[in-house]
Amino acid sequence: MRISVKISLALGCGLAVTACGQRADLEPLAGAALPQAPYGTTAAPDAAQLLDLETLAAPERSVELRRRSEERQDDPFDLPPE
Fold first, then answer.
1. In whole angstroms, what is the distance from residue 61 CA to residue 65 CA?
2. CA distance 24 to 1
3. Which of 3, 27, 45, 63 has the most CB atoms around it within 10 Å of its CB?
4. Helices first, then strands: H and E counts in the chain
5. How far apart are CA 37 and CA 44, in angstroms?
């Protein structure tokens, strides 16, 4: 294959993938309802509240692991195949 064909194929696939995004807010299916209110609360959460992640589900990184290039240490478990 020529390079121009490969490039146009890659761009076409990239555009097809990006066109699959969400276009509207999420809503329950017809005839279905949102989950019941959790025990001890009076109001049931709406769809946006159900989609929010808790802090423990997606914690933020507080420390940068690598600040500069470093030599890798020897890994005793990195063995060649037998």
1. 9
2. 40
3. 45
4. 2, 0
5. 4
